[in-house]
Records
---
Amino acid sequence: MNDGRRERLIKLASAAVFLTIVAVAVLIVVSQSGSSGGDSENIVAVAEVERELQGIPQDGMVLGQPDAKVTLLEFADLQCPVCKGYSEEFLPQVIENQVRSGEAKLDYRTFTIIDTNSIPAAEAAIAASKQGRGWNYVEIFYRNQGEEGTDYVSDEFLTAIARAAKVPDIARWNHDRRSTSVEAEVEEATAEAERLGFEGTPSFAVQGPGTQGLEALGLLQSADAIESAISAAH
Amino acid sequence: MKAPAEGTLRGIATFLATFGIGVATYIAIADSGGGSPVCIAGGHGCQTVAESSYSHVLGVNIAVFGIVGYVVLLTCALLRGDLARMTGFLASLVGFGYSVYLTYLELFKIEAICQWCVASAVLMTLLFVANATRMLAYVGREP
């Protein structure tokens, strides 16, 4: 037995344990301080969104069976954190219970009120909708939304979302999102929200057999409130 | 407390590392086919984890690093002497530390659990216990 050698090796092992603890702590701290969204290199929740929307028809920005009697319009800004919360917490329940069953359609309208970056984001989503991937675009955007006012809405970020949303023809999407017709669509959606008297996002409106034309609802506070509004419109 | 015989510890480590090679190889093969590992208990945790950006480092699936790690651990378990004891300890320490980090990512960043990753983390933890016990009890002593 060589006690000196044994002691040295155990000291070496202790140092390795210490270094490993430090390394793991550093890795965890770095991952926490890393981007909390808005990162085109790290688009998340793609599969989750794919599952949420799978099998539901999309026509432009309208999600749901074409013959659904009730249409719920959501006026929202892709940069709005409250809209992100709705998209993650409330809408999945509504999509699963009322859209998938053919009871209602969801019509996403871009209401660009946060800042000028909201406009290219809205144009990107509408351009994706021209290829049947508008809702995928919106939902993946929300799940990767950056912090407000951090200018994360770059061409690179918008393109990364388009790829994640599986927009089939990226060249066409790039052309569409810069077209005057899409620009006009974005302006018109915001003008419509203002006509309905909306001042914040998300704001809802509903149309169905039980409503008199398009009824402005404003902010609905929960998934249950959204579901009730849809039921009442039948 | 008396440590188990070194042969017993090496036998345990051999078994665990062989099992680990199997798990890591399955994850790597599932990924290379363009898919993701299938959760035996159902659910989409494995798909979510496999599709996250954390599943690859420098373009290489981390399961490949796992295979390398388990092969090193298997080799150390099969060999005698201080070099095998120290290398086995250091490799299992790195593997265990990295498993802690990956489990943290699953729980708090990816927010999905993949049972194959959990299986690997458990194997790596047990390998660390076996290798640490072997090193502490027998390093610096005759094989």
---
Amino acid sequence: MNALKRKDLFWLALVALAALLPAVSAVSANSFSMHVLILILLYASMSQAWNIIGGYGGQVSFGHSVFFGIGAYGAGMAVVTYGLSPWPGILIGMLAAAVVAVLISYPCFKLSGHYFAIATFAIVEIFNRVFLVWYWVGGALGLDYPIVEEGLKNLMWYDTKTGYFYCALALFVLVFGIVRFLEGHRFGYQLRAVREGQETAESLGVNSTAIKLAAMALSAALAALCGAFFVQYNLRVDPPMVMSLDMSMKFVLVTILGGAGTLAGPLLGAAVLIPLQEYTRALWGGLGGGVDLIIFGLLIIIIVVKQPAGISGIVRDIAKRIGRRPTAAKGGTSYGAA
Amino acid sequence: MDTLVQVLLDGMLNGMLYALVALGLCLIWGVMDVINFAHGEYVMVAMYVSYWLGFLAKVDPLISIFAGGAFIFILGALTYKLIIHYTVGKPPLSALLATFGLAMLLKNLCLNRFTPNFRILSDTWLGDRTFQLGFLIVPVPQLVTAVLALLVIGLIFYMIRSTRFGWAVQATAMDKEAAELMGINTERIYILVFGIGGATVGIAGGIMPTYLAVHPEVGTMFGLIAFICVAMGGFGSIPGTLMAAILVGVVEALSGYYIAPVFKYVAVFGLYLAVVFLRPKGIFGW
């Protein structure tokens, strides 16, 4: 733990490289490529947040859009409703998401397999409807951001996307750093032990309920932080945008297609899926006919059917074929243990 | 009082439709322990089949139910053969994610081909007919759907309980390897279960264009409600699904009328949570 391992050096180099990207004028001059980079970092962070409970904890939640939405509304209401800086809203949103996550999860963790999954669907739908008619949070109209002074205080930039890019990078470093720390920490081992066999873990003195609830609370708070960034980037929020099943599915899909329960999985998933989503949308989305989503759907089927360990599994296969030890693909993939 | 009875009747009739939609999911879930996320999209595809037959060839939805059933039978069997088959033995959620991809594919394919417009058939045999029963107003299309639902559910229930094929299905559901040792071709059972499950949804989707508009998003809510009904009824239990579906229909109608239409799904999903928190395996589950 004390000495930096080779794996950590790899990650630090990656982050340093990413931090230099806006200096390359070919990248920063094209606002669409900046947009794609920001989204990759955002989705990687979101999925990594989900990965804590879904990948390492083995509890496949389809309810993370609720926490994401709470975070988005926390920041949004601070700015739009109360005219403040988003920062207090972000903190309150994260706290609220963690509290809601614990309250929801405590009864849900008693359910197994598909019953748990469907319960989390149901919760998303309930939150979606309630927020649609809740006047205090803006109802179906949602919240539209006013134009305020740009900068870190208001977390808003208008001229270039560089500010957003560094914020997204900071978010990415924070979330990945937390998960990297937990991987080697006692808590991470206990969490994985609960995933692999709850009874066995309990027999060894692990309080599985407390572990799962703590993981869920952390996961929800980080998802809320990502939601807050999302709304600051979008400058608008309404319930279908953030609290929907489609949004929940994105957390799950990116992680599982990348490789659940691995540190690199969420980044790999986001790095493949998000450019695909954005470029297919840019190329064919304008034809008004969902061609981008047809291709996306087809791709999901193919990846799940052909390589259930996700893209990190593919990377591992390639690394094995080359005959080198894989640097970034390690860990379990047994998500969704019943 | 009159209103309450009317609302209850509407809710029950709607619940029967949900039961017919959920039946296929219940079969597939019960036999294979797989959640087919594209279930709602099957409803949507069947509705389009029925709609286009009605619009282009002037076939009444009452006859199109056979076409819808046959179409979704094939779609279901293909789903098994091309997707689900490959997810057996892989992590439990593989099938759910792959069928989510299928749902996305089907929804956007229909969006692409048929535009997002709402379409409804006019001049059908059942049309907007209603009749008066005392103080109650009974809508004929919904009543026919309910009768059809009970018929199909009864038929499937009889088939599973009392035919050799049904016994083979039950054996496969209980213990796949033991069933294979008894000479049951489990692969064929799986294909047929997926096909028959699809066919029942196809029948439901076939009759729906009589009184519901078709659009690419129509299936999503039906799919979610089907999940709720099956899970609430208990793992693969047909009577449980029927009861849960009627309960869902009634709760939906009551909350929609007495509280507010926006809250009807809040009530339905809240009901699911309440039921599974009390009985984690559903009403008829064990």
---
Amino acid sequence: MPHVDRLFRLAMWLERDRAVAEDLVQDTLRQALESFGRYTPGTNCRAWLVTILQHLRSNRRRAASRSPLVDDVDDAAAGAMPFVPPIPEVLTDEDVLAALKRIPLAHQEVIVLSDVEELSYKEIARALSIPIGTVMSRLHRGRALLRHELAAFSARTAGHRRDVASRSTT
Amino acid sequence: MTMTCRDARDLADAYLADEMSVETRHDIERHLEACPECRAEFEHGRALRGSVRRAFLGNAYLQSSPDLTASIARTLRPASGTARPSTAWRYRWATAAAAVILVSAAAVGVAMSMDTAQLLSLARAAWGDHRNCAVAFRLAQKPLSLEEASWSFDASFARLQTTPGAVIVTAGGDALVTERHSCEFGGRRYAHIVLKFKGELVSLLIADEETSHGENVLRAMTMPGLHVRVLSVDGEQAAVFRAADHLGIVVGHLSETDLRQLTAALAAPVASALAG
């Protein structure tokens, strides 16, 4: 069931809780089945499922009277970020995921939907109910933030290695 | 238009995601040819996208458990022993399940009379896809690999990754496969195999089950064996054949003899692969 695996990976990343993610995937597929008449044959089935999953998340947040899924980060994103650091040469998968977790959720979402789910800008816009221009600005800003986090992470790791090396020689 | 480094870098994401017009893409490529710094920057961007994807796919914490898959299959399947659902509901359930959880539903064969208008409609759409995708690279949505399309649209597309083979031997000479992908044109989803034959670009388009079902053309092609039908549409020709529960359409600027010879050579391996 490739769709289940991919939906679960996305739900797990967004919710960070296995039980909640499993419940979300079950509800997404149940909802998809009930509203299958609204699916347009020939379009991207995975993008349609991601849209349902995102809407369910959004409804749950509202029902729980919690804050919206995404803070209005786009105004902040308009601020300049003139320097984008180079990507460290040595990176593990854990480094990448740890850095991704440190950037705002709104930026994580678009990066994951673009890079992992490989949705088009239009499909991401529909899934998140935001304009395409916002998808593009969040991707642009999100990637810059991710590179800052990776560079900072790499610098910390290098400092730690230096400390260990100096302790072992003294 | 002369593009600055800043312009190019602002558009890097759209370029790497293939989300821009051909003209802008060419502007960027001209800039990249002349600018090693931006070239390196674009390569970094490409590498970072790959790193995120790899990290996600390889992370054990994000993997679903077999229990979840079993539980979903149990939950979504109609309970046995309950009142028999209506035919419409059962059909809808089977179609939805096939699309959503890739449960293969046995097709119910209903022989229908040939509807030439529907075949012509499909042939016209096939020519549209050939012109816009194979010749002009001008599609609203970027093509997917056949493997990915097999996950999202039609599981049997995966079998077309190696079938037909790279060289197709016909009575009139060899045809070479130059490209395989899945694309969408005019609301229809195809497996698209591009070939070079007698100096011409030729497209073999295979309509998936949903496309075929929508037009009823699949069941219209009820002729026994690998019958090839050549249709004239808008002054062009298209050869159509049935391959298991799919329909193959071959289009390109070929004589009718060449079109028939090539289609006959393609139909047998494709039908065999899709029947498997």
---
Amino acid sequence: MLKRVVVFSPNAVTVGQVLGREVRDSDDTLLAPAGRVVDQPLLDRLRASGLKGVPVIVAPDSMILAIRKAYLEASLDHLFRHWRFSPGMRRLRAMLSEHRTGTNR
Amino acid sequence: MLQPIISRGRPLNLPIPTGAASRLLECIGAAVPSPWSLVSILDDDPLLARRFHRLAISTLVDGARRGGSVGEVVMALEPDVLRQVATAAAVMHLLPASPSGLTGEQFDRFRFWEHSAAVGVLSRLMARNIGLDPSQAFVGGLLHDMGRLVLDVHFPREFSAVLQYQLRHDTWIRDAEAAVLGYDHCMIGEQVASAWGLSTQLVEIIGTHHQPERTDPPASQLAAVIHVADILARGLQVGYPGDDAIPMLSEPTLRRLRFNWSQLRDCLSEAEQSLHEARLLVQETMRPE
């Protein structure tokens, strides 16, 4: 099965799902970009925004996991962008990545 | 004695606490705070009482006292813990998540409190592991960045300029504060904490949590714990600390605490459940009446 984008009601969206397209509110303000993994604060914002539908990626679990991991790595790269050459901070980044992807278990 | 912050050639006017929260701070500042006076102050302000009650549950390691009324909780708490819980409740009351200020969505106070609560629960966990007072660590973590909220609530125009500078230059928000204001949230936070009568321990944490090894003598172990917990909470991306760039983790601080990477990893694993508690704490203390 290939990945596809399905529009869910905001109340049916759950934490950990991935947005298939960018989401904007009625004022055309960007709420979240495509590819963003839904976390609790975003879910609260989506539900409070009055949107009728939220585009979410539906795909095999392995593909969803890969998308989530890629999103997390990009997000950690951004968070640690000032410390690319610091060995201690690189170690911290690696530890956080392992913890958050569950690869340390 | 702290040196006053000079802004535009004059000492900065610090905000003065008002209302029931101010009376609460005054009451716990007494050598022996009277529990009856404290209950009476809380009776006057239901929202403050709710914050106090919820914080007491999170501050206590022993959740068994969860069921009592505000009065029962006040009577049951040890004086030191009572002081800490009341301090946290008063500061949260004076620097609430809503209404949002001039900075609006640029600085989401609700998510900022989520970050602070995450630092609180991580600090509590680390303190317990190394034999420090967990409730002091929790409140220290919760209030460590109160200076930034003081800026947003009481100096919104200046803080808005800080946020714009930070976006334009892609700096840490602390560097943006120093560039735009000439002082940072640690400096104003410790001044305000001192002026509001917070404990010397809290004043120290608020002033030194970014560079606990750079003060002379080095900051307390508790301040060092909060430094590490702050970096971990930023790495876990719980809430929003004001920017999206992680500051430097001080390795000398880790060594002083005798924390190695493996213990940090264990601490992260242990923290998972507590981070959920941090979010709940903010929801239950900061939602409007």
